[in-house]
Amino acid sequence: MEEDMRLFICEKLASIRYLSKAGVALDGDVAFLTASLGAWKPELPQVSFPSIPFTELLDLNSEESGFMNGMHIKMLSGGVWGDVVEHGDLKSRLKKVAADAVEIVVAVDNDRRGAYGAKQALDVIGCGKKYSVMTFSSFSENDLQNAWALRTDNLSAVDRLECLALEQTIKKHFDALWHINSAKVLKETCLFSQGVRTAPISKMEMLTLKLVQELDSSNGSFRQKDVLSLMETSNVGSCTTQAQILTNMMKRGLFEAIEDGFPSRYRLSECAKRFIGRCHPESFDLELPSKLDKWMQEQDLTSAINYIDTYFKRQLEYQRKLVLG
After folding, report:
1. pLDDT of residue 67
2. Residue 76, φ and ψ in degrees, nearest 5
3. How far apart are CA 230 and CA 237, in angstroms?
4. Mind listing the domains of the chain with CATH numbers?
5. pLDDT tens-digit map of 239-274
């Protein structure tokens, strides 16, 4: 390891790529990727339709679930991020890198998910060193350089990270319950729609589908950058996740490319239109991001669970009525 090596704890590979492009991360620096999920992989139950809506509290932080295999460590050398090759498990490797680092920097966007994963990782290795936090709202060089210049010192960073981690527990419970219910209810919606590839559909995909429908209805087609702009103004996803959301929706068959000579133009697929037609209008709730943010700030798990209960009960009843005529 380099003598002046710094350790960056980030959510995804895109983050560290842009950090190096902006001149924040330098050759010899190391990045630990949390995959946004925190240190423990929760074991989510598979439920049957009689259990829908499923709203039981889950143990999402059990060490029995194990340290996330999706996490890995990379070192910047010659402008390229390569894997850090060391013996031992990921936990011991991270502990050694943290011990050797002259500075530990938690580099996360402003949706709190990365802060939660970083806090868990630091707790797992028993890191007693000082660390700082830089929070960015986009991957532009100016934003990243400003976030780097304004990174907080250890005292305020620890308090802030603790607060963000507490808020994130609400989101983590909400996302887990969404995933469990979506795996049954929205999977059935996909099957009824004939052509939408099934898998648990995320809340952000549902919101993005509504935004895309509005673009598609007014223009007959849309560009990816138009969707990303709408996602940003509607607070749908963070800068590290928006592009991935669109990729997932493309793979699911919700968009199709238009071959008209113009770059990157898309339209809603026919199966996407069928899917939308089988969803209750309130299943596309563009107020959900602000509601979830409020529940997180107020530590209001009850309201988050009640939302899940109402949402999936209503959607299941709606799509079943359409089938029965």
Report:
1. 59
2. -90, 125
3. 11
4. 6-167 (3.40.50.140), 175-324 (1.10.460.10)
5. 777 877 888 888 888 988 886 655 578 889 999 999
